[in-house]
Amino acid sequence: MKKTLYLMRHGQTMFNVQKKIQGWCDSPLTELGIHQAQVAGEYFKKNHITFDHAYSSTSERCCDTLELITDMPYTRIKGIKEMFYGELEGESERLNCATPKECETYYLQFGGESSNTVRDRMLKTLTDIMEKDDHESVLAVSHSGACFNFLRAIQDPTEELKKGITNCCIFIYDYEDNHFSLREVIRHQF
């Protein structure tokens, strides 16, 4: 039986505007971030998309985004948190590595995670979620790095990365026979 996962990034935050590295540290949604989440909620309503279950990263920015999209109960889950950047948390984005390949081990020297750890964590967590009974249509609100690394576990992410993992973009995955396939990415213009 084919199931659907709607994996989306949270709305814009204060740290996004300030160009600060935001992994496990957190900052609030901006007014634009609130608007982005409301627009995503309208997209789901307009297209008559409903969810059996909803999940959020434990980060406030994701919980707030999800609560603006739907008033249904949801589960906070650590497995879909953003990558941990160690000592670089809250620092300027200019300290980030330049390419996805470099990110595989770059943050380890600062006490952070490797991107392969994030990839494996996201794949396991989302597979476990989609394997549950009565999980036919699932919303999960996560982060750009986590969404990118999950996509990297499924397919070559190069083309989608070029288009950007914008705030509140929605990755729509089909899930069948223990396998995810990317159907579509919704990127609203703001």
UniProtKB/TrEMBL annotation:
Catalytic residues of the enzyme: 10, 82
One example GO MF annotation: phosphatase activity
Binding site for substrate: 9-16, 61, 82-85
SMART domains membership: PGAM
SUPFAM superfamilies in UniProt: Phosphoglycerate mutase-like (SSF53254)
Annotated protein name in UniProt: Putative phosphoglycerate mutase
Secretion signal, residue range per the UniProt entry: none
Species: Longibaculum muris
InterPro entries recorded: His_Pase_superF_clade-1, His_PPase_superfam, PG/BPGM_mutase_AS, PGM_Phosphatase
Gene Ontology cellular component list: cytoplasm
